[in-house]
Amino acid sequence: xxxNLRPRRVISNESRLLFIVFKIELIEQGIKQDLYIFIxxxxxxxxxxxxxxxxxxxxxxxxxxxxxxxxxxxxxIETKIGSSDILIxxxxxxxxxxxxxxxxxxSKIQTIGIGVPGVVTKDNKVTCVNLGLINEPIVExxxxxxxxxxxxxxxxxxxxxxxEYYYGSMKGYDSGVMITLGTGIGGGIVINDKLITGANxxxxxxxxxxxxxxxxxxxxGNNGCFETFCSAxxxxxxxxxxxxxxxxxxxxxCDSNLExxxxxxxxxxxxxxxxxxxxxxxxxxxxxxxxxxxxxxxIDPDVISIGGGVSNANDLILDGLTDKVKNHLPxxxxxxxxxxxAKFKNxxxxxxxxxx
Length: 356
Fold this sequence. Notes:
This protein is an alpha/beta fold. The protein has 3 domains: 7-47, no CATH class; 50-167 and 348-354, ATPase, nucleotide binding domain (Nucleotidyltransferase, domain 5); 175-341, ATPase, nucleotide binding domain (Nucleotidyltransferase, domain 5, 2-Layer Sandwich), CATH 3.30.420.40. Helices cover 40% and strands 21% of the residues. It contains 14 helices and 13 strands. It has a 5-stranded mixed sheet. A 5-stranded mixed sheet has the order 11-10-9-12-13, with helices on one face. The chain has a 3-stranded antiparallel sheet with strand order 5-6-7, with no helix packed on it. A hairpin with a 3-residue loop joins strand 1 (50-56) and strand 2. The model is unreliable at 1-24 and 39-43 (pLDDT under 50).
C-alpha cells in the first residue's frame, strides 16, 4: 500500500523537505485516504532528534548520543562483572548521566540500543558468560525504567555491521556482510535494512564456518574454523610455530619472547621480506579467500566489509584478494561483490547499537 520509505535512512536534517516530497507523491497516486497516516508518522519521527548507542565490552561500557549518524557526546564507565542487576543499574545510570551532560530530555530519545558480546535470542534474552548473563531479559528490565523509549539489544558483531551498513563502508548497498578479524572472527549480515541473525539468534557466526583442516582445534571444539586461520590469534599462533623452527625478524621484534608476538609484527616483517612472515601472511591470505568464497557462494552479497584490528594491514589484505576469491568460486567469470575495508574502528559499537 505504501512506498518503501526506509525511515532510518531518510530521516535527517532534510526530513521536512522529504516529508513534503512524499506528501506530493501520495496525492499524485490518489492515496488521499491514507495521507493522514503518513502525516502522523512523520510528525512522530521528527520529534525524536537523538538515539543512544551503548557498547558493552569486557573492560568498559561506552555510551554515545547519536544524531544524524554522528556521535555528539560520549561517556565511558568500567564494566563490573558479576551481577546482571548491577549491569542494568550501570546502564540506567550511564544513560541518565549522558543525557544530563548534554541537557537532553529522555523524551527526545528515539532508541536506546545496546551491543553485547554474546547471544541474543528473538525474545531479547541475552547470554554472555563473561558478563555473568544467562538468558537475561535486558530489554524488559530497561523498559521498566525508560517506559516511553524503544529499547533494543543485539550481538556486538552484528551491530558493528549495522554501523557500516547505515553510515560506513556498506552504505548505499542493499545487502552486505561484515567480518571482523580480531582475537576471533565475528560477523554480521544485513539485507534490505534487516539484520539477519537466524531463527534462534545464533546466525552469522562467520568465524565458525569450517574451511579446512588445521593443526589445532578451535575453542568451540571443532577443527578448521575460519577464525583458526584468519584471526589475529591464528596469525600469532602460526608465527610462533614457525619462529620456533626458523630464523626470523619476528624473533628480534619480540625480543625472543614469543609471547610478545603480535599480528602487526608479522605484517611488518612481511614488508621486510622476512621468509617466515611470508609463509604466515600467504597462509592467512589463502584461507581468507576461501572463507570469503564460502560467504559469496551462500549469500552473494553486494559488498563484504572487513574490519577488526587485522584490517589495519589493508594493503596486504586487499592486494589481489578478489582474484583469489574467484579462484574458489564455481562461476569464475561472474562478477562478485565489492570487498572493502570497514570505515569504523572504535565507534562501530555505538553507531551500530543506536541503529537497532
